[in-house]
Design goal:
The structure is a single chain. The chain has about 325 residues and is of the alpha/beta class. It folds into two domains: about 120 residues, Alpha-Beta Complex (Nucleoside Triphosphate Pyrophosphohydrolase); about 170 residues, TIM Barrel (Alpha-Beta Barrel). It has ten helices and 15 strands. The strands form three sheets. It has an eight-stranded parallel β-barrel with strand order 8-9-10-11-12-13-14-15. It has a four-stranded mixed sheet with strand order 4-1-6-5, with helices on one face. Strand 9, helix 5 and strand 10 form a beta-alpha-beta unit. Helix 4 runs parallel beside helix 5. It is globular, with a radius of gyration of 20 Å. The N and C termini lie far apart (about 50 Å).
């Protein structure tokens, strides 16, 4: 067991091109885990900021100057020889063409079709998080009506939406079963994934891709069901910790801003949101009063993306 003071702090970069591909580097001979693929980056020096370390390492390793990077997830991993705390940043703008400065191999890859192996153990789980899209839509058929809701969902899917949660608390069981089935059919036609709020059985019956757990249900879970994609709603540090402990695929943190449905509810605001997600190992979607134009703000504050209900299109 390593003492906390012995944990090596690392700044790691997910260097992403507009087509969604990201850069991996193969560790050269002479280094631990030589031949393994990883995200570029390196150790943070004493009294050095994470962002400064990221910029320095990428200049040394790849010869590029980072122009724009967003904080993302943080993962701690214990190897036989060391414990590391990896602070991942998504690098979206840089100057120069990445070139191996330290005899490493480089390869551009896609999260859903990584063609190089083996991956460094600490980095492998990050690929699953990278495959999550930036926008998470939540249905609102009880307010809009089923027909209009399905029309809006299809328009959003045509525009690129790839992750949907069916959440209809007031809908009768039979109607919900039919509606959820229609959403799954639509989504799968466009290569999108669907999560069902709370109901594991309904998820399996309609062929959905996962389940989204409300915070009350999250706090009573002892383990995840045998379902590929599991999300959860969180509102505070305790709930985030529980989601991490269980190994959720992602979480939604809310409310960030005032909402139409709960205008008087106490909001987190962006600074509190950033504080809560700073050391989180899971991708976090910001929720509450947000629109598409808030996506960059969410990225700047450490979010994976945004979740929306009324602004679904």
């Amino acid at each position: 067991m390593f003492h906390p003071s012995d944990i090596v702090k690392v700044a790691a970069a997910v260097i992403t091109r507009p087509d969604g591909s990201f850069l991996l580097a193969r560790r050269p001979a002479g280094k631990p885990y030589a031949g393994y693929w990883e995200f570029p980056g390196g150790k943070v020096k004493p009294d050095e900021s994470l962002l400064h370390a990221l910029r320095r390492e990428l200049l040394e390793e790849l010869g590029i100057h980072v122009e724009h990077a967003y904080p993302w997830i943080t993962r701690t991993f214990t190897y036989p020889h060391a414990a590391v705390c990896l602070h991942f940043y998504r690098v979206v703008q840089w100057h120069g063409e990445p070139y191996p400065q330290e005899n490493q191999e480089l390869s551009w890859q896609f999260a859903n079709n990584v063609a190089v192996e083996p991956m460094l153990p600490a980095n492998a789980p990050v690929l699953r998080a990278l495959d999550l899209p930036p926008v998470y839509a939540i249905t609102n058929a009880m307010e809009l009506g089923i027909k209009l809701s399905l029309t809006r969902i299809e328009h959003a899917l045509q525009a690129g939406l790839r992750l949907v949660q069916v959440r209809e608390k007031g809908m009768m069981k039979e109607a919900l079963h039919v509606f959820a089935g229609e959403v799954v059919k639509l989504a799968h036609r466009y290569g999108a994934k669907v999560l069902i709020n709370e109901d594991i059985r309904l998820c399996r019956e309609v062929g959905a891709d996962g389940v989204h757990f409300p915070s009350s249900q999250l706090m009573n879970l002892t383990e995840l069901p045998g379902i590929d994609l599991c999300g959860a709603s969180c509102h505070n540090a305790e709930e985030l910790f529980q989601a991490e402990r269980l190994g959720m695929s992602f979480v939604v943190l809310a409310p960030v801003l005032p909402t139409l449905s709960h205008p008087e509810s106490k909001t987190l605001g962006w600074q509190k949101f950033a504080t809560l997600v700073r050391e989180c190992s899971l991708p976090v979607y910001a929720l509450g009063g947000l629109r598409q134009e808030d996506l960059t703000t969410a990225w700047e504050h450490g979010g994976h993306g945004i979740a929306m209900m009324r602004a679904i299109v």
